[in-house]
């Protein structure tokens, strides 16, 4: 066999294996660090173990390690099977030198690849290979359809594909921002390709390949630089990413050193240790440039980045990227810089103060003996500054100085009380000293900032830098100062990624990384999920694989209670009018480390766009239920908590109920509960919180623990049962006149929306009856008028009224919801009605599974199945490229259908949640929307929890059954199982 099988191996594993020359066939596993191939052995029919030597550093011979990879092949497309594998291994020399595998995605690299094929591997090439990521192929397995020719291989133990890293090496903290790419769905997805052709959309004329991935934020104390280096090394962050040569570290081809962008003083101070330990050079970027670039990026690209913080109340501010400048950026690090920012790259450092974070920490350390900044901050939580500060009341015998607007509790002089008291330092409580210091410095910074804003006529002041640390008291003090001195005219705003401005700016300074034209809608924040480095703070060693994540999660339970425990309460503060009062946050439940879980991972999803039919994208708010109301939050928190055991059961069963699945299920439940508890404590922890975010968080969390489709079996079963009933339903419908048919169709959609595995009431129903029994019962209950009933208006638009004929609709977008009856007996018959009227229909379904919602990938098969019983659906699906004629066995052919066939198409919506946020939809949906004159939103998630109040540029029909008593009462003043049929004309 030899050659043939080897070729086949290359085809099957284009990234894993490749022959380098005619005479010898070295095995390349990743663009790797493997130097010597040792031997291979076949474990069983489907797996092969390959042993190899790994040299971590070619210079250091002793750093050799024997490793083993097991490549699991459930052989599809590879005909040779077991014998081939054995032969292949027999063919390979026992020990073999391996060459660097050139990157195959770039033309110039292909040329180089040819060159390298022609020459024997040199020491230099081998050295270059060490700047590539190490690929962990242990447990590798073919994913998906085994019959496919080039199946994807899942590397379960491979950490993210790291592509980029930038650093801000500050005096007290090292901040890291790194990007990890994530694989998009396979590019050769047939449905997607066809939709691209049909809808004629493209990704424009970008110079660089569009990347999808995540931006991560991590911080370390500068004194623990070795931990930082370990982290970088363990995650191989300093190595360029796979397939990313055009933006990889800016290293000219052929040069050995990897270059990492860095800013902050440590970029100079720590250069040697980075070179020594990681072999990388730090490319220094100007600190101010980076701060401004980072702030501009965040303010333009991240929706809930800026917020105000007054008296313990946090409120997110919607920043209009087109109306951002000028603003004052106050960066509070060890010292303080005040920068007037006029545009991208256009700024001036107008002022600063040497009294900053370093002052607080330095003086605090001397005066209190605290060992860390955080300890000092923590201490302040329990302090009472009246013990050291001289108050107005101390001077005026307990009275206000009301003539000039100062109350008795106003600080007249920070630390002033200690002058008149004959006490030693040890006579004062460290808590009181810490608080007095904190107030003195924060207030001073707030005041100077405002004066500078005034000097330049600037209204908006953004405060950043790690001094703030999401600390409620600090923010309140600064806000108070700005508010007080500006008499309410100026507002202090804070940034969620406050400490990462510099690192982000350094990250943005990489040329040609393809991220420079990021748009607001392309970056979506996802919640930090079960990782040890949530919110930029390391809570444990870096996690290599899912297994570690699970065990970390198990430990997190103990850690979690610590994390979410509220700070001890303090005695109520003094009050009064005017002057500098004690901000109130100290007494509520905000913790000193409130920032710990504040930062989500930013997901770069290049294909997401704003839905073009939104009437007013700027005013659009997807959530109907606002969870900043504590009562609401508590209610939905309980609903989700109670649903958890059932969800875990389904998730575990969907993965075969194995021990591993059970362990993951348990870890998922813990992770999700911890997030819920965290949000109960501080609802704004991850940004503005609505019900849709909670429901999405749950799905994200499931995926994090590798439950990709918990309701898979249920969905299949319900689809089959419903498809069996469909021919009868279609016959029944065809026997009705137009008007009765339209009504029956809408009733059908509403009735079938009862099949919802996310609703507690519906899950209870499932235990009582069969699918068909529930469906019949639900249909019987469809008495009009429904709770919201605009049917007549809708009917008039579709059928016209009296003599007046209705204007034909060009294209309808039908946002489908649940699998089974919901789509098969509800939405598909409705789609068929539009098609027979000559209206093009685009079925819009989820990109990723969420509960029992249908996905766009599942739809073509269901349509094809339904089309077997219906000529209209068949022809439309053919016209829409959903099915090919040969597959279909025609059973009915109604007389009436138009000669020019309106197509039936399917697009994905870009979401993996039961709700939809129209600020971020897939580009294929955005393209399909352009010609649409009607949208139909179906289901509670998409038309009630979200978008109930949304207005569109075209007509919109919102259809749902309310399957929750409280929502029914609150939203439509009705009862559970009431129906909503809301029709709104274009606005
Ligand atoms: C998750 C859902 C929005 C899904 O509803 P759908 O969009 O499928 O109609 C809904 O089931 C829900 O709000 N459930 C939680 C409320 C409850 O259990 O009563
Ligand atoms: Mn649903």
Automatic annotation (TrEMBL):
Transmembrane segments: none annotated. The keyword Transferase applies. It is an enzyme of class 2 (transferase). Its cofactor is Ni(2+); Mn(2+). Its EC number is 2.7.1.33. GO terms for cellular component: cytosol; nucleus. One of its GO terms (biological process) is coenzyme A biosynthetic process. It comes from the Eukaryota. In the N-terminal section; belongs to the type II pantothenate kinase family. This is Pantothenate kinase 2. The lineage of its organism: Eukaryota, Viridiplantae, Streptophyta, Embryophyta, Tracheophyta.
């Amino acid at each position: 066999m030899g050659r043939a099988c080897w070729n086949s191996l290359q085809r099957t594993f284009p990234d894993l294996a490749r022959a380098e020359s005619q005479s010898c066939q070295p095995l390349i596993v990743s663009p790797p660090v493997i130097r010597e191939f040792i031997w291979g052995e076949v474990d069983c029919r489907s797996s092969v173990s390959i042993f190899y030597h790994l040299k971590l550093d070619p210079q250091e011979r002793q750093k050799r390690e024997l490793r083993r990879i097991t490549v699991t092949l459930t052989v599809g497309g590879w005909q040779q099977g077991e014998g081939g594998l054995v032969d292949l291994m027999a063919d390979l020399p026992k020990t073999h030198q391996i060459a660097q595998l050139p990157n195959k995605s770039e033309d110039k690299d292909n040329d180089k690849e040819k060159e390298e094929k022609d020459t024997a591997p040199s020491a230099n090439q081998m050295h270059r290979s060490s700047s590539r990521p190490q690929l962990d192929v242990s447990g590798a397995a073919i994913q998906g359809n085994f019959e496919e020719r080039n199946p994807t291989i899942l590397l379960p133990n491979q950490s993210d594909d790291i592509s980029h890293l930038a650093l801000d090496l500050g005096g007290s903290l090292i901040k890291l921002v790194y990007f990890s790419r994530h694989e998009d769905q396979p590019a050769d997805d047939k449905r997607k390709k066809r939709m691209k052709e049909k809808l004629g959309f493209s990704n424009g004329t970008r110079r660089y390949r569009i990347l999808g991935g995540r931006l991560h934020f991590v911080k370390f104390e500068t004194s623990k630089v070795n931990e930082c280096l370990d982290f970088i090394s363990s995650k191989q962050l300093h190595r360029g990413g796979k397939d990313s040569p055009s933006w990889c570290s800016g290293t000219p081809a052929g040069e050995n050193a990897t270059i990492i962008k860095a800013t902050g003083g440590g970029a100079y101070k720590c250069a040697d240790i980075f070179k020594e330990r990681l072999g990388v050079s730090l490319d220094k970027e100007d600190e101010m440039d980076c701060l401004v670039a980072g702030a501009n990026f965040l303010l333009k690209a991240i929706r809930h980045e800026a917020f105000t913080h007054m008296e313990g109340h946090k409120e997110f501010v919607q920043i209009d990227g087109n109306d951002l400048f000028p603003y004052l950026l106050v960066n509070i690090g060890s010292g303080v810089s005040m920068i007037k920012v006029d545009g991208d790259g256009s700024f001036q450092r107008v002022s600063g103060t040497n009294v900053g974070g370093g002052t607080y920490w330095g003086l605090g350390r001397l005066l209190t003996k605290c060992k860390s900044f955080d300890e000092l901050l923590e201490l302040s939580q329990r302090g009472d500054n009246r013990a050291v500060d001289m108050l107005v009341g101390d001077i005026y015998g307990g009275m206000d100085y009301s003539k000039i607007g100062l109350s008795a509790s106003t600080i007249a002089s920070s630390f002033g009380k200690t002058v008149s008291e004959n006490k030693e330092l040890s006579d004062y409580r460290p808590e009181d000293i810490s608080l007095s210091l904190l107030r003195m410095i924060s207030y001073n910074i707030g005041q100077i900032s405002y004066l500078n804003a005034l000097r330049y006529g600037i209204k908006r002041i953004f405060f950043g830098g790690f001094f703030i640390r999401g600390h409620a008291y600090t923010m309140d003090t600064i806000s108070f100062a700005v508010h007080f001195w500006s008499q309410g005219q100026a507002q202090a705003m804070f940034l969620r990624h406050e400490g990462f401005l510099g690192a982000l700016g350094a990250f943005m300074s990489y040329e040609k990384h393809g991220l420079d034209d990021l748009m607001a809608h392309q970056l979506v924040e996802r919640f930090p999920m079960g990782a040890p480095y949530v919110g930029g703070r390391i809570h444990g060693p870096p996690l290599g694989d899912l297994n570690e994540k699970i065990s970390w999660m198990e430990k997190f339970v103990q850690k979690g209670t610590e994390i979410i425990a509220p700070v001890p309460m303090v005695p109520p503060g003094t009050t009064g009018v005017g002057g500098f009062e004690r901000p109130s946050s100290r007494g509520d439940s905000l913790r000193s480390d409130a920032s710990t879980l504040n930062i989500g991972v930013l997901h770069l999803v290049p294909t997401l766009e704003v839905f073009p039919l939104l009437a007013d994208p700027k005013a659009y708010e997807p959530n109907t239920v606002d969870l900043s109301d504590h009562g609401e939050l508590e209610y939905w928190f309980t609903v989700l908590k109670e649903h958890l055991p059932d969800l875990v059961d389904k998730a575990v069963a969907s993965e075969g109920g194995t021990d591993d699945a059970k362990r993951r299920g348990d870890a998922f439940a813990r992770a999700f509960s911890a997030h819920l508890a965290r949000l109960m404590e501080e609802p704004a922890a991850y940004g503005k919180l609505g019900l849709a975010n909670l429901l999405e968080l749950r799905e994200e969390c499931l995926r994090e623990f590798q439950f990709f489709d918990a309701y898979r079996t249920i969905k299949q079963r319900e689809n089959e049962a419903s498809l069996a009933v469909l021919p009868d339903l279609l016959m029944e419908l065809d026997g009705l006149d137009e008007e009765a048919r339209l009504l029956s169709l809408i009733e059908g959609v509403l009735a079938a929306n009862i099949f919802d595995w996310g609703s507690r009431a519906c899950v209870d129903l499932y235990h009582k009856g069969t699918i068909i029994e529930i469906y019949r019962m639900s249909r019987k209950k469809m008495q009009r008028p429904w709770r919201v009933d605009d049917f007549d208006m809708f009917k008039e638009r579709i059928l016209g009224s009296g003599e007046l004929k209705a204007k034909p609709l060009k294209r309808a977008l039908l946002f489908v919801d649940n699998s089974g009856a919901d789509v098969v007996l509800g939405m598909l018959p409705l789609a068929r009605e539009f098609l027979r009227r000559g209206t093009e229909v685009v079925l819009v379904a989820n990109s990723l599974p969420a509960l029992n919602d249908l996905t766009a990938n599942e739809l073509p098969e269901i349509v094809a199945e339904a089309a077997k019983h219906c000529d209209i659906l068949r022809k439309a699906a053919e016209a829409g490229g959903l099915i090919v004629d040969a597959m279909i066995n025609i059973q009915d052919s109604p007389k009436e259908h138009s000669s020019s066939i309106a197509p039936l198409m399917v697009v994905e919506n870009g979401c993996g949640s039961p709700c939809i946020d129209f600020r971020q939809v897939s580009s294929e949906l955005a393209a399909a929307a352009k010609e649409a004159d009607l949208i139909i939103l179906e289901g509670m998630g998409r038309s009630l929890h979200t978008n109930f109040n949304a207005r569109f540029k075209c007509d919109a029909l919102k259809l749902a059954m309310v399957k929750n008593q409280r929502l029914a009462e609150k939203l439509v003043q009705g009862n559970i199982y009431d129906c909503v049929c809301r029709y709104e004309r274009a606005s």
